[in-house]
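The record is passed on directly below:
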Amino acid sequence: MEMLSMHGEYYIRGEIMSDYVNQYKQKVDAEEVRSRFSEITDSEVPIWSGAPSALSMIGRYSLAIVVLFVHLIFFWAAKFENIDGEGNLNLVVGLAKVILDISGVFGFVVVMMLIAKINHYLNVSTSGGWTNSWLVLNGLIPFTIVILDWSGKILGNFFENIPDTPMWLDWYYPLLGVLSSSFAIAMTTHYRNAFQYAITDKRVHIRKKFLYLDTSAVGIPFDKVENLKVDPPIIGKMLGYGSLHIITDGGVTDEPQNNHQDETESNSGFFRLMFGWIFAQRSRGDFREDPSSCLYAISEPMEVYRLINELMDER
């Protein structure tokens, strides 16, 4: 039951709720939050709920568009004999044509692998495992088709009745580009929707449900919270979102990210010389952006920061 005191403070189940906290409580649909967070107990009062901002995924969406653009550029270069005119687009298409003239479709494979490596090395929000795997797959598909085609032709010189093997055709570039980019956009949207956050008068809840198999739920009681850290990226400061990291008495819930290359320093010098560049990443001193262990890319993070502090002070 909720009552208003003479001092403008709100009481819930015998506890005082400030005006600032009550503003958030009035906006949230408690029953809807409970339906999404079954772990919220009857003794808890939902105060706030949120999810990663759609703007936080702009990097992944942009990468999908870039990949589609690369496919279309190589299709244009492969389909048309002459590239006339001036401008940056014609320059890019002309460069793609030179690559195809020298190495055929393997040039496209190399370009996609370079994009994957650059994305991995930069160690940004798009440098996750599934994104890099998707980029590599864009190169492996035409590579595999060409290898199968060559294998079939070689085997046909020695054996009879060899089944027809696939052949890479020019129109596969836009087909693969559209399918691949559409898949990436759909997966990015699903990935963002997989994370849900809620704050009650007793704890912070973090829920993950990705592909209906990778699920987790974490409840962090306020008496375990020792500090909070708001970590908005540069673009997040401009667009109004940022991640809120919760530091508990057991340590930081999201440890600072280290260069993956450091993990291989204990290996042999030969291994580092031959393969270290594959795993090398730009080192970062900030917190790792893991949506399952912080309030990732939420809107108005400083307001939520204040909300949690007020709820902690009221306990």
